[in-house]
Amino acid sequence: MDATSELRATALEPVTEVGPERLRWDRVFNPADYDAMIAVLFGEPSQTRHARKHQVMDEVLAMLPEGFPREAAADPQLVAASHRFATLVSQLQVTSRVDQGGEVPA
To answer: Looking at the domain assignment, is residue 2 inside a domain?
Structure first.
């Protein structure tokens, strides 16, 4: 392997490892859905963004053990919370489209 190839190979290695807490967090609040939620919220007035985000997060976190993600949750809890988060993000997207004069999906 030449020097350039070696540098490229090392650049692809993760800079940091994530711990079990982050893995649990991402399992519930997967990055794609979280990014979608943030994109919707940035389209809302700044006065309501914070409250709407915490409304979603609080509802999902209420399904998990206190202290999550430091405290582990059972697999069924993680799955249910992840599905609920995805549903709430979808609802935010629909509400945002309607608020902006878009059509309500059938």
So the answer is: no
Q: Taking the CB of residue 69, how many other CB atoms lie within 10 A of it?
A: 21
Tell the residue number behind the tokens 């509400």, with chain if given.
Answer: 95
Number of domains forming the structure of the chain: 1
Convert the pLDDT of each residue in 51-87 to its tens digit: 999 999 999 999 999 999 999 999 999 999 999 999 9
Q: What is the pTM of this model?
A: 0.76
∠ Cα 64 71 87 (to 5°): 30
Q: Would you say residue 4 lies in a domain? A: no
Q: Which domain holds residue 35?
A: 18-99
